[in-house]
Amino acid sequence: PEMLSFIQGLPKTELHLHIEGSFEPELMFKIAKRNNIEIKYANVDEIKQAYSFNNLQEFLDIYYAGASVLLTEQDFYDLTWAYLTKVHEQNVKHVEIFFDPQTHTDRNVPFEFVLNGIYNALEDGQKQLGISFRLIMSFLRHLDEASAFKTLEQALPHKDKIVAVGLDSSEVGNPPSKFQRVFEKALNEGFLTVAHAGEEGPSEYIWEALDLLKVTRIDHGNRCLDDADLVKRLVDQQTPLTLCPLSNLELKVIQDLKEYALPTMMEHNLLVTINSDDPAYFGGYMNENFWGITKALNLSKVQIAELAKNGFKASWLSEQEKQEFL
Ligand code: ES4
Ligand code: ZN
């Protein structure tokens, strides 16, 4: 369809992407084989069958299991390179991606294998594919504060490579306040901060992310619509929300894309962006996310173009770098 080629042609950003969530079954089998690891599925079809989730936790259990075959620096390079070549085909010009070091360091994979594998691929992507990037280190919120502090210490020698810290994994019961002191140290060390908030958790968690963690963006943030004062705050400050439509659908945060509150958010003048979260698990990269909401909500070209531009506005590119796309 013509709308699909319009979406394809738009220069896009990706601001909410877990690199471990881009791990496609084909590559998972290849890497498991060369690392002599058995995976519990017989083939790619069986893996895809298993990707059916009723909530965030059901997904996370499978996502951590998948990531457990990643061992060497080359594995992390290959994972990241596969992602970059994929989004290059979709005209993505700039990415700001998460990695979850604790998922790997807890299995005794050295922090530097993870970081260097990912970072070297990002640098090659910049040179060979023209995709600019920023890297965000995300803490697993189901783990304790001490583990997050230890992870932050490991990142300190690599401030040239990591621009921000984030917060992901099981949201309900693990509020931003649990990591206030870790984020305070990260801020003092010069990192930007972001946090997943208001995906499954309540709007109070979004307030905490803003007030206690001093985040410059909210990842997801859907639940802000429950609180008019919060919406006003987000609009006044133009704090971006990194929305992930297919993720919300697959994790049953919403039951149908037709009920997605995106038009309401745009009417409120919230700075909303479209992202893929964990594309290998949720059935689509950037174009599929844009196409899904376009069909379900009957979006116009003007609206789609605005969403794509919002991605550049919400990014950490310099004002000068942004100008090319605004
Ligand atoms: C995640 Cl969708 C989502 N939510 C929270 N944490 C995550 N880690 C990877 N994907
Ligand atoms: Zn996420």
Oligomer kind: single chain
CATH architecture: Alpha-Beta Barrel
The biggest sheet amounts to: 8 strands, parallel
The CATH superfamily turns out to be Metal-dependent hydrolases
What does this structure look like?
This protein is α/β, with parallel strands linked by helices. It has a single domain, classed as Metal-dependent hydrolases (TIM Barrel, Alpha-Beta Barrel). Helices cover 50% and strands 13% of the residues. Strands 1-2-3-4-5-6-7-8 form an eight-stranded parallel beta sheet. The two termini are 25 Å apart. Bound molecules: 6-chloro-9H-purine and zinc ion (ZN). 6-chloro-9H-purine is lined by residues 18, 21, 56, 63, 168-169, 196, 199, 247, 277-278.
In short:
This protein is 50% helix and 13% strand.
Describe the secondary-structure layout.
Elements: H1 2-9, E1 12-14, H2 25-34, H3 44-50, H4 56-67, H5 73-89, E2 92-99, H6 101-105, H7 111-129, E3 132-140, H8 145-155, E4 164-168, H9 180-188, E5 192-197, H10 203-211, E6 217-220, H11 228-237, E7 241-243, H12 245-250, H13 262-267, E8 272-274, H14 279-282, H15 286-297, H16 301-314, H17 319-323
Parallel strand pairs: 1-2, 2-3, 3-4, 4-5, 5-6, 6-7, 7-8
Helix pairs in contact: 1-15, 5-7
